[in-house]
Write a structure and sequence with these properties.
With 188 residues, the protein is of the alpha/beta class. It is built from 6 helices and 8 strands; from the N terminus they run E-H-E-H-E-E-H-E-E-E-H-E-H-H. The strands form 2 sheets. Strands 1, 2, 3, 4, 7 and 8 form a 6-stranded mixed beta sheet that branches. Strands 5-6 form a two-stranded antiparallel sheet. The N and C termini lie far apart (55 Å). The structure holds flavin mononucleotide.
């Protein structure tokens, strides 16, 4: 039996990314493992080069268990929230740390299939660089990108409590509400 690893790169435990990854895993006939970056402490690569001998990262934080799971998995499904049209920082830190897998002719993730999805609010999908950036990381690790696609999510303005009255938010902007109504609290 193969093992499919699903990773939600969102810092939120039960957001859209988590749901999307869990839904995909639930459709698999293979064994699955789910990891959320919610609550995880993962720093970016510090370029200590401690991994160059044996492809093992020496920095002790929550990346260690993820590295182990990535190496063990037969395939990976990675969900990445779109923050400012690039991958969110937590996922980006995780991807940077995958530098440890590629030294001296050994690519520990070589040929490992990966499916990449990006969650985001923007209707203007062409602005998003998330999928291309994550695919670039995957290519650098000689992984096999099987599929990449966008998943529609919500703007944070729908749950921040000020969405209808904040003149700088997406709801006012996208619904073409007059800014002066928003500023006056007309909708409250
Ligand atoms: C700091 C921040 C920046 C964001 N920037 C964008 C953006 O540029 N484009 C976009 O479509 N969505 C943007 N969003 C919305 C998120 O992509 C969306 O809420 C997220 O994908 C949902 O994932 P989650 O529910 O799993 O946390 C942003 C959200 C946050 C918190």
């Amino acid at each position: 039996m193969n093992m499919i690893l699903g990773i939600s790169g969102s810092p939120r435990e039960n957001g859209i990314t988590a749901h999307a990854i869990k839904e995909i895993l639930s459709q698999s006939k293979e064994d699955t493992q789910y990891i959320s970056l919610f609550g995880k402490h993962i720093g970016g690569c510090i370029s200590c080069l401690g991994c160059t001998k044996d492809n093992k990262c020496v920095v002790e934080d929550d990346f260690q268990e993820i590295a182990e799971a990535m190496a063990q998995a037969d395939a990976i499904v990675l969900g990445v929230p779109n923050y400012y049209d690039v991958p969110n920082a937590l996922t980006h830190a995780m991807l940077e740390r995958c530098f440890c897998f590629r030294h001296q002719g050994t690519f520990s993730l070589k040929d490992k299939p990966i499916v990449i999805l990006s969650t985001g609010y923007s209707k203007d999908e062409e602005n998003s660089q998330v999928l291309n950036i994550v695919e670039h990381f995957a290519n650098k690790n000689k992984m096999k990108v099987i599929s990449k696609f966008l998943v529609g999510a919500f703007s944070q303005c729908y749950s921040c409590k000020y969405g209808m009255t904040c003149a700088d938010g997406n709801i006012v902007k996208d619904m073409n509400l007059p800014r002066r109504w928003a500023l006056s609290g007309f909708w409250c």
